[in-house]
Design goal:
It is a single chain. By secondary structure, this protein is α+β, with helices and mostly antiparallel strands. It has 2 domains: 187 residues, Jelly Rolls (Sandwich); 106 residues, Homeodomain-like (Arc Repressor Mutant, subunit A, Orthogonal Bundle). Helix content is 41%, strand content 21%. It is built from 12 helices and 12 strands. The strands form 2 sheets. A 7-stranded mixed β-sheet has the order 9-10-1-11-3-6-12. Strands 5-4-7-2-8 form a 5-stranded mixed β-sheet, with no helix packed on it. A hairpin with a 2-residue loop joins strand 9 and strand 10.
Length: 328
């Protein structure tokens, strides 16, 4: 298993041109926190509050459901799945306009470790006409590629990416069978398959060009500029300047700075600062290292200098961010 600790570096391959897409997918970790098998009779509506930092996957094993975000419905047919990488607040309903109940208001029963079951259906219909859903709440860890999460859309739908990934169809069929038949050990198998589906959705999005993040992807695919980005993500704590980045690219400062801004939409210094602050926020949220250690690993000469930079970027000092995590 790859080391994704805060001081780890991304693996490098033997190719002369670094493939940042491969680096992303090799370094990605999806760790399931909790899963639910839900059996529901229409009409139904389940409200999922926002969970920043937690990704959410929903798979429809039988029937259909609608995903609603900010009043906009999106149909999820049988065998389809949606992935919300940033934990955006949303609802699952039998049809647009159905009344909502908060997820916490539904009675649940444990099936096995980390997997619960919710049943809200008429007994007479529970065997044939109910909708069966399987949902997972996950930690999405991209290591030093964390900024890509902010570029992802609120919702990724598997059916929109399936043409690129025909190999995922047997996995979806297996999920349907496991969710419907409830064979021995089905809950654990569903949880593992859900992780595979979520990872496949992310891969499909990356391979299709990352949507609106196309400028960033263009930078990754530029042999010279991609080499700079790889170096920044491998060693974000290095004392980077425009001159050292330009040297990495093999260009003059002015040519490098102009090209970097044109492709990424950010100045080189703003990019490395944002990367450092995103990593710092992730480490603080995880609680694995202290603020002083985070400052040291990200190349700041003092905790005070780091705290000032963190507050400028996030609007709050790192100590307050850590306190908020402890109180959550």
């Amino acid at each position: 298993m790859l080391d994704r600790s805060p001081n780890a570096t991304l693996p490098t391959g033997g190719a002369s041109t670094p493939d940042m897409m491969s680096e992303l997918l090799m370094g990605m970790r999806l760790n399931g926190i909790s899963y639910r098998r839900m059996q529901l009779s229409a009409p139904f509506g389940i409200g999922f509050g926002g969970a920043p930092g937690k990704a959410q996957l929903h798979f429809v094993a039988r029937g259909e459901a609608w995903l609603v975000i900010d009043g906009t419905p999106r149909r999820i047919g049988c065998g389809d799945a949606v992935f919300l990488p940033r934990g955006t607040g949303h609802a699952l309903v039998s049809q647009p306009g159905a009344p909502l109940r908060d997820l916490a208001d539904f009675a649940s029963a444990p099936i096995c470790d980390a997997v619960d079951e919710i049943k809200s259906c008429d007994q007479a219909a529970c065997r044939s006409q109910d909708v069966i859903l399987f949902s997972g709440c996950m930690d999405l860890d991209l290591g030093t590629m964390l900024p890509l999460i902010g570029m992802m859309p609120e919702v990724m739908q598997l059916s929109q990416l399936a043409d690129r990934q025909p190999e995922i169809l047997p996995v979806l069929e297996a999920m349907e069978r496991e969710a419907r038949t409830r064979r021995a050990g089905f809950a654990g198998i569903l949880a593992r398959l859900a992780d595979v589906v979520a990872a496949s959705i992310i891969r499909g999005w990356v391979e299709s060009g990352c949507g609106s993040a196309s400028g960033w992807v263009e930078a990754l695919r530029d042999p010279k500029l991609g080499r700079v980005l790889l170096a920044l993500h491998q060693d974000p704590g290095r004392a980077w300047t425009v001159a050292t980045m330009a040297h990495e690219m093999g260009a003059s400062r002015s040519v490098f700075a102009e090209r970097f801004l044109a492709v990424t939409g950010l100045t080189p210094i703003r990019y490395i600062t944002d990367l450092r602050m995103r990593l710092a926020g992730q480490w603080i949220a995880q609680g694995g290292i202290g603020i002083e250690e985070a400052a040291h690993r990200l190349g700041y000469s003092s905790q005070a200098a780091f705290s000032r930079a963190f507050k400028r970027a996030t609007g709050q000092p790192p100590g307050l961010a850590r306190l908020a995590v402890k109180q959550a």
